[in-house]
Structure formats: C-alpha cells, structure tokens
Amino acid sequence: MQQWNWLTKVSKKQLYYSLTAIVTALCIIGGMVWNAHRQTKVVAEDITAVQTTVIGAAAAAQEYTYSGEVRGRYESQLAFQVSGKIIKRNVELGSVINASDVLMQIDPKDIQQTVNSTSAQVSSAESQLRLAENNLNRFRQLYEDGAVGRMTYEQNVSAYEVAAAAVQQASAQHSQGANQLDYSLLRTDKPGVVSAIKAEVGQVVSAGQPVLTIVQDGEREVEISVPENRIEELRKAQQLKVTFWALSNVILDGKVREIAPMADPVTRTYKVRISLLNPPPEMKLGMTAAVTLLDSETQPTATIPLAAIYQNGDTPCVWVVTDNTVALRPIKTGKFGNGTIQVVAGLQQGDRIVTAGVHKLTAGQNVKLGGDSL
After folding, report:
1. At what angle do helices 109-145 and 150-183 cross, to 10 degrees?
2. Which one of 31, 84, 247, 310 has the lowest number of neighbouring Cβ atoms within 10 Å?
3. CATH 2.40.50.100 fits 75-104+189-218, yes or no
C-alpha cells in the first residue's frame, strides 16, 4: 500500500525522463556490441587469398638486340659546283658506277657564253701586250741612242708590265670559266653504287645542293639506333653477334666502330655503326640486320609473369609475401618474353611474390596463400 502511495507521488514528467534514460542506455550498449561484432567481421574479410610463386634464380648472360640495316662505311653526297638546270641523268637507283663516269649534266649554254667572253678578253689582252712589247723595244733603242729621255722609256716599260698583267688576269678568268664548263658534268672519283637520287631532269639546282648519294665500294657496316641508357653497355660490350633476316644461316662477329656524339632530334637515340668481320658476298646494302649484345658476365636472373609487376611511379616493383604479410620491393628488369619479364636485381632465390591482383594490395596487408602459379 505504501509502494502504491509512493508511485502516485512521482510525477508523470519524472517517470517519462526515467524511461527515456533507460532506453537510451540500452541503445548505446546494443550499438557497442554490434560495432564490435562488425569490426571483427571486417578484419576477417580483409584477409585476401592471393596467387603466389616462389622465385628460383638461374645464372644467365644478359643480352640485348637492336635492329638495323646494312650500310656502306663511306657514303658520298654528290652535288654540282655550279647552278643550273639538269638536262641529263645517266644513272638509276642501284647503278654500279666507275671513277670518272658522268652521272648528270647541267645545261651549259650560259657557262659556254662566259667562256667565249673570257676567251675574247684573253685575245684582246694578248694583242695589247704585243703592242706594248713593240713600243718598248722601239723606245729602248731610242733611249740608248739618246733620242728620248729616261722618263719616256720607263713609261713604256710600265705600260708593257700592265699589258702582261692584263693577259694573266684574262687567262685566269678564262680558266675559271672553262672549269665551270667542266663542272656542268657531275662525275665521281670513286667506284660505288647509287643509293639515292634527289634531283630529276628539268629541275633547277643550286651549287652545293646534294643530288646523288653514292655508297663507295669497300667495307660494309650495320647502323643501329641505341637509347641513351644503353650507350655505356654497348661501349663496353665484349661480344656482338650480327644476324640477317634474309640470310638465316649467317651469323657474323661485329665491333663498335663509331657512336654518334649527339642524339637524333626526332627519335632521341644515338646512331651506332657496327663493323662486320668477314661479311659474305651475298650481303647486300639495305638488308635488315639484328645486332645482339652479349655480356660475358653472368648474373642470377629470374623470370616472372608480367602480371606480377606493380609500377610505383617510374620504378617497377613486386609484392613479396613474408609471414602472410605483403611488402613492396623495387626490382630491376631485363628483357621481355611471351607474357613474362626477366628480373636481374631485387629478388633472391626462395622469395615468394604475388602474381595476380597486385593493384588491389596495400603495404602491410595480411594475405592468405592461395597456391603457387607454377
């Protein structure tokens, strides 16, 4: 009876607040229990099964192959020494030429007129010289007889010397014109093969403009293009092997003869000339060749799937599994294969790496080994 009286004394407002506090407390406790259960579930789900393989290193020699083409060691860019219109071409691409052969000709009409003019000047100067010589002989006799003074005699001596110099000048101009007439014929002083024609009949060319390219008879080389990060390796290479696409049974030894001092402005690679030792006669200009660089020093290498590579900026890396935890490790790669890539540094024999799903992992993440790929 007393308890009932006490309840009646409690106001409705106090009863409402009490019930609200009890419900709030129950909700907080329930939320904490649910959150703990959910975190436990998330942690359990974060353990990802991954596909891995164990590294088995093998000693192998590094080799790099560069494609190129057969070129002549000496290539000449031929040009006319005078300007004019081409009226004749006596060669075609691939034509074999001998020394002093006439390859092209420029219209010589204007040059011929210059030669005719200088020839007339030579005749005029020679006539003036003869006149001066006759006058000098007469005045020398008169001077010796005392009929004329010394000044008059010396004037005739000077006139003779001027006439003689005029003859020399006219003769030099005539010789220059004759040379230009000969320059209207384009000749070569070395035997070889025509590898390029850059001007045609009817075209007006200027002096010094290349019109033909001649590969001289003699040594043959292979020209390749090498990126800048491989120049030093090529310079220090112990062995070079040269093969040809059209000559499957021919393998030649090569030697670096020349490395361009500057990179090509378009390809940003360096031109390298490889001398060939004892080339066969069936090797022709322009043939496709492959130059393989062999390193005499062997080093441990491993071949892994391309899918195992994780690119971290400019550095290739792989995920290494240690105690079911992944860590990112940088590596140095070598040559590519069929869906594989060679690793020359960064991995040890017995390392376990992830081979699939590498872009879904984070450093320090726990994983479950799902089996080897090999």
Report:
1. 160
2. 31
3. yes
First-to-final CA distance of the chain: 85
The answer to whether 300 and 349 have CB atoms below 8 angstroms apart is: yes
Please tell me the predicted confidence (pLDDT) of residue 293: 83
H or E, element range at 153: helix 150-183
- Please give the CATH topology (third level) of the domain spanning 108-183: Helix Hairpins (1.10.287)
DSSP one-letter code for 359:
G
The highest-confidence range among 116-125, 212-221, 299-308, by mean pLDDT, is 116-125
Fold that domain 48-60+298-372 belongs to in CATH: 2.40.420
3-state secondary structure 58-84: EEEEEEEEEEEEEEECCEEEEECCCCE
Compute the distance between CA of residue 208 and CA of residue 186 in angstroms, rounded to an integer.
12
Q: Report the candidate in 224, 230, 215, 275 with the shortest Cα–Cα distance to residue 94.
A: 215
In this prediction, residue 44 has a pLDDT band, given cuts at 50, 70 and 90, of very low
- Which of the following CATH numbers is that of domain 65-73+219-297: 3.40.50.720, 3.40.50.1000, 2.40.30.60, 2.40.30.170? 2.40.30.170
pLDDT at 239: 80
DSSP 289-314: EEEEEEEEEEEEEEEEEGGG-EEETT
More confident residue, 48 or 296: 48
What's the confidence (pLDDT) of residue 76? 87
Average pLDDT of the residues of the chain: 82
pLDDT at 57 over 50: yes
Length of the chain, in residues: 374
Please give the pLDDT value at position 104: 94
Question: What confidence score (pLDDT) does residue 2 get?
Answer: 46
* DSSP helix/strand/coil, 269: coil
Beta bridge partners of 106: 86
Amino acid 71 reads: R
* Fold: same for 65-73+219-297 and 108-183: no
Residues 6+ apart with CB under 8 A from 355: 51, 52, 53, 304, 305, 307, 308, 373
Q: Is 115 helix (H, G, I), strand (E, B) or coil?
A: helix
From the list 186, 172, 187, 175, the residue with the least C-alpha distance to 83 is 186
